[in-house]
Specification:
The protein is globular, with a radius of gyration of 21 Å. The chain is an alpha/beta fold. It has a domain of 97 residues: Magnesium chelatase subunit I, C-Terminal domain (Helicase, Ruva Protein, domain 3).
């Protein structure tokens, strides 16, 4: 099996091509998911940040439809795993099977050997099966019987789950939750979008007519473009301070990990690129704080008794943490400017 690597990727996309390609993917997904532009853009940002996405919400709000729409918008290999209590780890990663003709064992790849892996209702599988994803999500590889197999590039796991208080579910292990870059909730559509859904989805499933508007090679170049987005030292320090605040909060017994800091910056780069900037602002980190941090932390018993959610705790930390400023603010400008007129977090031009 020949795997595509970053050494095979061509040059980076120009800015106009980047936005044309990313906007085409968003517009294509919105043919299926109506009225959820922010959610769709965040899902694309996670893909371009080389991360994994966890979609958590009640049944029937379009979790699986969003995952399938993103997968169908890109012409690449896609596999779906329906997580059930009897699913085995070998069903996910693959298994070595004895071949009687060659008198040797041969490896048969599992469902994770694809560019996009859609895991439906991941919390209905046992923790042992859930843990089968740990290695492939973090290291982009699978080890079976002492042999390591590299996964394709790009690689993304899009998992859906119902809230853990629903019947017949298992809570995700902390180690696996930490490997998901972001957790989003679909939410109920507004009445206008729901009415449009009745007209557009009543007779024909829009997924059946969805066609790819991009491919794996283009996505690799989009990711390469995102990697070049500039992050100022003040923004990096702000990200560290934000994650450190979760570790020192009296409302939390488990704060965010260093992996969270890395993924927060990677996703901020993707959000900045999608917004047409080649530099990250502290506002990007503030917008991403809840989806990137909230699912990784564990509240104390007192916070749970007070019915404080992790989303509310993270939002409060963001509100109380001061924004970084590396120069004085102009009285006539909403953003601080440097002496040469460039934005404070913008990269220096040669």
């Amino acid at each position: 099996m020949t795997q595509q690597t970053w050494d095979d990727v061509g040059g980076l996309l120009p800015y106009d091509e980047f936005h044309a390609a990313s906007d085409a993917i968003v517009t294509n997904i919105e043919q299926v998911i109506e009225g959820k532009t922010a959610t769709v853009r965040l899902a694309l940002a996670v893909l371009l940040a080389e991360g994994h996405l966890l979609i958590e919400d009640v049944p029937g709000v379009g979790k699986t439809k969003l995952a399938k729409a993103l997968a169908r918008s890109i012409d690449c290999s896609v596999r779906r795993i329906q997580f059930t209590p009897d699913l085995l780890p070998s069903d996910v990663t693959g298994v070595s099977v004895y071949n009687q003709e060659t008198h040797d064992f041969e490896f048969r790849p599992g469902a994770v050997f694809a560019n996009l892996v859609v895991g439906d209702e991941i919390n209905r599988a046992s923790p042992k099966t859930q843990s089968a994803l740990l290695e492939c999500m973090e290291e982009r590889q699978v080890t079976v019987d002492g042999v390591t197999y590299q996964l394709q590039t790009p690689f993304m796991v899009i998992a859906t789950q119902n809230p853990i208080e629903m019947e017949g579910t298992y809570p995700l292990p902390e180690a696996q939750r930490d490997r998901f870059t972001a957790r989003i909730a679909m939410g109920y559509p507004d009445p206008t979008a729901e009415l449009a859904m009745l007209d557009g989805h009543g007779a024909v499933d829009p997924l059946s007519g969805l066609r790819p508007v991009s491919d794996a090679d283009t996505v690799r170049r989009l990711i390469g473009h995102v990697r070049q987005v500039h992050v100022a030292d003040a923004v990096k320090q702000y990200a560290v301070d934000l994650v450190t605040a979760t570790r020192e909060s009296p409302d939390l017994r488990l704060g965010a990990s260093p992996r969270c800091t890395l993924q927060l910056l990677r996703t901020a780069r993707a959000v900045a690129a999608l917004d047409g900037r080649d530099y990250v602002l502290p506002d990007d980190l503030q917008v991403l704080a809840v989806p990137v941090l909230a699912h990784r932390i564990i509240p104390t018993a007192d916070a749970q008794l007070a019915r404080r959610t992790t989303d509310a705790i993270v939002a409060d930390l963001v509100h109380r943490l001061p924004l970084p400023h590396d120069r004085k603010r102009s009285p006539y400008d909403t953003r601080p400017q440097s002496g040469n007129g460039r934005a404070p977090f913008e990269p220096r031009r040669p």
